[in-house]
Amino acid sequence: MPHKRRAKTHIKMQMSRQDIEQSLRDKGLQPTLQRVGICQFVLCMADHPTAEDVHAWAEQNLGKISLATIYNTLGSLVDVGLLRELKFSHSEKSIYDNNLDEHHHFFDVKTGLIHDIPVQNLELSMNLGKPFKVEGYEILLKGTVKP
């Protein structure tokens, strides 16, 4: 099932161009025209896009831009902590998440939408024994969302 990116999962960041430029500077990144444009999409508009989703948007809104530039920009944004890169078993592609709060995900197998699930909405009990030291976990639930 192809990835869709319009699930209403959390409140999008409302950032002006100046806010984005300052955030990039604060993280040590030069606020180039392409970087700022890509940030406007991935931080303020998109829900769990792939690099190909970002590339399609950028081609329509920023002009000719290589997929390599998209991957490099997304990698830089992940490196400085403005995005998270996720790999899920249902897709070979990386998915980028602008919700940096601790949360889990629900994949709707019927629509392809990915929904954020707050950690307080799930209970997990672990009994792994002494050899295991858990430093974190992410849960992907799969199913369908009733309309």
What features would you describe in this structure?
There is one protein chain. The protein has a three-stranded mixed β-sheet with strand order 4-3-5, with no helix packed on it. The protein has a two-stranded antiparallel ribbon with strand order 1-2. The chain has helices at 17-26, 33-44, 51-61, 67-79, and strands at 84-86, 95-97, 103-108, 114-118, 140-143. The protein is globular. The protein is built from four helices and five strands; from the N terminus they run ααααβββββ. With 147 residues, the chain is an alpha+beta fold. It has two domains: 17-97, Winged helix-like DNA-binding domain superfamily/Winged helix DNA-binding domain (Arc Repressor Mutant, subunit A), CATH 1.10.10.10; 103-143, no CATH class.
How is the topology of this model organized?
Layout: H1 17-26, H2 33-44, H3 51-61, H4 67-79, E1 84-86, E2 95-97, E3 103-108, E4 114-118, E5 140-143
Parallel strand pairs: 3-5
Antiparallel strand pairs: 1-2, 3-4
Task: Write the element-wise H/E pattern from the N-terminal end onward.
Answer: HHHHEEEEE
Biggest sheet character:
3 strands, mixed
Total separate domains: 2
Whole-Å distance between the termini? 19 Å
CATH topology-level name of the largest domain? Arc Repressor Mutant, subunit A
Order of adjacent strands in the largest pleated sheet = 4-3-5
Discrete helix count: 4
What is the CA-based Rg, rounded? Answer: 17 Å
Proportion of β residues? 5-15%
